[in-house]
Amino acid sequence: MGILPTSNFPLLVVLNPHSGKKQGREVWDSIVQPALNKAEKPFKLIESNAQGHAQSYFFDNIKPILTDLIQSLSAVNEPVDNASAIIRPSSVTLQIMVLGGDGTVHEIVNGILRGVEGTGYVSDEFRPKVEFSIIPTGTGNAISTSLGVTSVQDALDRFLVGNATPLRLMSVSTRAESGWKVHVYTVVVNSYGLHCATVYDSEEFRHLGNERFLHAAMKNVENLKQYEGQLVFYGPVQSYDRSTGSLTPVSSADSNGPTISLPGPFTYLLITKQASLEPGFTPTPFAKTSDEWMDVLAVQNVGKAEIMEMFGSTSTGKHVEQKTIEYFKTKTVELETPTQGRLCVDGEFLTIEGGPEGRVRFEVISDENIQIFGVYA
C-alpha cells in the first residue's frame, strides 16, 4: 500500500490554520507544498476554517470522493457482445494529509464513518482504506509523538516512503433502547477526572500553545477534586505487575460478564490508544497505536503529593511503579458515575448522566468495515 496505488489521484490535504500555535499555513507554504511538488504528487487542498468543518466536509463528500477514486482505478475489458465490462476494485486507498492536531484527525475519522454509516457503501465486497499522513502542527500531536515522529520533515519522509500501520479506533457508546449506541469514535484518549478538567480549563490558556495544559493542570491540582465513579472491565484484561515490571493476564475471559472492577473515586483516569499525549508526557507507556488493546491508567482517591509525583515521572514512564497507580490493557470497559459527570473524548466533551442508564462503554473496534484507517509510520 502507500503512495503508488493512488499516485494519479489527488492527495487530500486538510489544513487547519488555527491548530497549535497557528503555524500550519507557514509549514504548508514553506515545506510541505514544495515537497509534494518535487515528488510530483497531485493534491487537493481543503482548509478547515472552523471547529467541526473537517467532519462536515467528509460527512458530505466521502461517498463521491471514494466513487471518483474507484473510477480512476477501474479497468475496462475488451468489448463482449458490443458492451464493455468494467472491473471495479474491491478496495481502494484514499490518502489524507493533515496539517493540524489530533482533533482534526478525530473530526475526519468521524465524518467519514458517519458519511458511510448505514448505507452499505463499505462492506465485505468493497472495503476502502484511508491512510493518514499527520504533519504535526497541532498542540499535543499525540499520534505523531507516539509513533516517534520527530519533525515535519520526518512526517513527510514517512509519507513518501509509504509504510502504513493501523490507526486503531475506540468507540464511545451510550445507552439506547436497543442496547448500546455509538456516540463517537476516538483515536487518542478518553478521560475522566483531573485530565478531563485540565483539558476543559486549558481553553483559557490556548494562546500559550502546549504550555496551556501545564497551566490548566496546576490550576486543577491546586483545587484537587475526587470524581465518583466505577470502572468495570469485560473480557481479557492485562495488568501491570510492579514486581516483575511487565504486563500479565488478569483474566482471559471472553464472556459477557464483568472481569474486574475499580470502585473509585478517581483522581485521574485515562482510556487511550496512544503512549504519549504530547512530547515529554507519556502517561501510558505500553500503549500502541496499532494493537487491539486500550490502555487504562487509573489513579484512585489520592492527594496532591501523589499526583505531583506522577507528573514528575511521566516523561520516562516510571510513574507506573507508583503503588497508587493502576495500569491495565483491555478491549472493553464501562464507566458509571452516581451523578452527572463530564468525559473528555479526543478533546471534546460529553456529559453523562448518573446511574446505570448513564453508563458509558469504551471498546476497541474490531469490525473490519469500521477499522479502515491507517497512518504512515
In short:
Residues 6-176 form the DAGKc domain. The chain has 377 residues and is an alpha+beta fold.
Structure description:
The chain has 377 residues and is an alpha+beta fold. It folds into two domains: 152 residues, Rossmann fold (3-Layer(aba) Sandwich), CATH 3.40.50; 194 residues, Tumour Suppressor Smad4 (Sandwich), CATH 2.60.200.40. It is 25% helix and 32% strand. The strands form three sheets. Strands 8, 9, 10, 11, 12, 13, 14, 15, 16, 17, 18 and 19 form a twelve-stranded antiparallel sheet that branches. It has a six-stranded mixed sheet with strand order 2-1-5-6-20-7, sandwiched between helices. A two-stranded antiparallel sheet has the order 3-4. The longest helix has 21 residues. The radius of gyration is 22 Å and the shape is globular. The N terminus is likely disordered. Keywords: ATP-binding, Kinase, Nucleotide-binding, Transferase. This is DAGKc domain-containing protein. It holds the Pfam family YegS_C.
